[in-house]
Design goal:
Elements (H helix, E strand, L loop, with lengths): L21 H9 L47 E5 L4 E11 L11 H19 L6 E8 L7 H9 L1 H7 E6 L9 E6 L4 H8 L13 H8 L1 E2 L4 E2 L2 E2 L7 H8 L4 E6 L21 H8 L4 H19 L8 H12 L10 H21 L7 H16 L19 E4 L2 E7 L1 H9 L2 H20 L10
Parallel strand pairs: 2-3, 2-4, 4-9, 5-8
Antiparallel strand pairs: 1-3, 5-9, 6-7, 10-11
Helix pairs in contact: 2-9, 3-7, 5-9, 10-11, 11-14, 13-14
Family: Belongs to the peptidase M28 family. M28B subfamily.
GO molecular function: carboxypeptidase activity
Amino acid sequence: MGRLEEKAAPFLPRIPAQPIGYGEAQVILKYLGGNEVPADWRGILSNVAYRYGGELLNSSSIEVKSFNRLERRDTYNVIGIMKGEIEPDRYIVFGNHRDAWSLGSVDPTSGTAAMLEITRVLGEMAKNGFRPRRTLMFCSWGAEEYGLIGSIEYVEEYVKVFGARIISYLNVDIAVQGNHTVDIKTSPLLFDIIVEASKLVPSAYDPVGKTVYDKWVDFQWNNVTNEPKIAYGLGSGSDFFGFDQLVGSSNIDATYMFDHTYYKSLSSYALYHTSYEVFAMMKNFIDPNFTAHRTMGQLMGVVALFLSETPVLQFNVSRYTIALREAMKNLKPNNPEALDPLRQAINDFGATANDFMRRSKLIDFENPFNIRAYNDQLLQLERAFLNPLGQGGDYTDFKHIVFAPAKGNQYAATGFPSVSDAVATGNSREIDSQVAIATYFVRGALSTLKEFDNFFS
């Protein structure tokens, strides 16, 4: 495979950067002589006036010694496959990266532990005669922390294979960062499968008989829809990115989370990516009995078996209608009528999705060819939302027109990101252009749900 010369790679760093702790930052900030920043730019370090920079007070200087090196290293992906007995050309893929910033007891080793336990259990089942209906793949990725290198390289090399065959990618990067409840981000198509799986798995650190679903009822419940709160869209923060944006499969990322109502200011666990992230941290502060690890292994294992063993995939296409409408509600152009073409396309999508579900009840699922044809329509739906050109410029890998990172936030997923970016500019011509593109792909997606001999009506 061809490679760029290092000097020709525009994304390699040219300016040395050195992470520092809060203690060092507090001292340095006290020496800054620039103007004070606005209130919404200020942090919470004590006895510090937050300033833009400027010259250091008292003609002071700072010496930074960095021992980072730019060098070429080899990294490896480790792939295990349990071949499906009936549909070996349909894949359910588990994945987690193996590299860490330090010892990584949470990120990524909690996920590695959960994935290895799942493979151990499936291995025991295989000894007793179990063979999955569809192929199960287990992927330990290299170099995730350096830019998702291992998974992206693998997906790019085999994107045509995955594009034709994969059903779902299940990501277990940070499997456990708390012991309160399970937090999931997913494709809308998998919502119902996740809910059904959650009803079968015990919740960690709760009374016997209480399930993950029961815990959601208590703490992550949507009183409007009378359902658990499960976020749609995965962003770019882990190895699901290639499967989301280049392959177009329907994917999941899950973690056992701490209580956000108590730790309101924390976006992630306190010692994230530090040298303190060791086994003792996990054992003493996060998951003393490792029951959260067990719950995550059981939950993701049950989801995988639902996907691999159910002859008819339990994807719910009507969930995408809800997701599309929610995503559009968050778009606030100065002229709301600019969204009318997209709004009409989403309404038409909803009608087509309802018709698809009505027709599915009439299918003879005793016929394996009917099952295969129905399942293939479900798989084509998510892929139909991929724009081969992406968002253009430096953002060609952001291909999913409904859920992808926006240019203003390249980490999290945004609904209709290209339209959102256009709205942020206020440029009416750009807004109209991006609405037209989104409308085109929504209509393309709904055509995949129509009858085979009448997809163009």
